[in-house]
Amino acid sequence: MKLVRSLLSLTLALSLLLLSALSLASCGKKDDGSYTVGICQLIQHPALDAATQGFKDALTKALGDKVTFDEQNAQGDSGTCVTIVNSFVSKKVDLILANATPALQAAANATTSIPILGTSVTDYADALGIKNFGGTVGGNISGTSDLAPLDQQAQMILDLVPDAEDIGLIYCSAESNSAFQAKAVREYLEAHGCLVADYTFTDSNDIAAVLNRACAECDALYIPTDNTAANCAESIGAIVKDKKIPVIAGEEGICRSCGVATLSISYYDLGYKTGEMAAKVLTGEAKVSELPIAYAAATTKKYNPGICSLLGVTPPEGYESLGENRN
After folding, report:
1. Residue 223, domain CATH
2. Helices (DSSP H) in 64-170: which residue ranges?
């Protein structure tokens, strides 16, 4: 009887193991060669929208109708990013696009197995707390960075507003990449004899009060690639144009509403590059752990003709009008 019971127990254990294996197999990659990609975009504004569109266009070009997108927008809320990426993990999507830093951080905390590609992220080391960053995140994360040369952005302030002595850096205190950019710009400007002060806001509710104080105390302002500022760019524009304070912006979307100039990258091209990376990861041509972070191929000095005219700012040679290129 003991032998019979042992055989029965062994048979039951093997059956359970087989059922478990079958269950796991049924939750794995579909055998028809199709893919589902989850897209978590922090907020809707032109730069992030362009990056998402570029990503989808590149991946669709590479994989055609084999790829399906589950596209979600967090409406500017980091907590919603967490909810979105957790739903992607539950659905066992094949890859996650994290568009903007809070989306990347949420995805990184949600899974270590599903490949994650970031875009519109300024500094991966800062966003993910990586020390001695060598250019490759490793694990299940890679992506593209929207970082334009910060020393060149800072120099634009000196070129366009040469008489400026007091310069304010405007950004959201909750966005670590904005602080990273502001620090680099501060160091450059202070090395060139400027007095620099940070003016941080916590969210869209206090940006007007912070901005009015900055305008009263500064000759010029710098706004980095900050998602909250981008979402409030028209409100910022109304204030700085009324106060006649020139703004150098970290990205083109902000500049269109409130800036005199920007060192521009194409977010569409950045997203497209990310889509090409995704195609290689999904098809097995490349391992996400081995892909180094990619950067924008080119930057362009652009000026906003309307605001420059209003403030009496004359851009030097080599600046392209924002009206000539909508990307």
Report:
1. 3.40.50.2300
2. 78-91, 101-110, 124-128, 150-160
Rg (CA), the chain: 24
Do 180 and 246 sit in the same domain of this protein?
yes
Same domain, 313 and 211: yes
The three-class DSSP label of residue 137 is coil
Residue closest to 314 by CA, chosen among 142, 160, 137:
160
Q: Could you tell me what percentage of the chain is helix, strand and coil, using 3-state DSSP and rounding each to the nearest 5?
A: 50, 20, 30
Mean pLDDT of all residues in 219-229: 94
Is a pLDDT exceeding 70 seen at residue 5?
no
Is 18 within a domain? Answer: no
Domain of 212 in residue numbering reads as 150-264+300-324
Q: Please tell me whether the overall predicted TM-score, pTM, comes out greater than 0.90 for this model.
A: no
Task: Report the relative pairing of strands 300-303 and 261-264 from DSSP bridges.
Answer: antiparallel
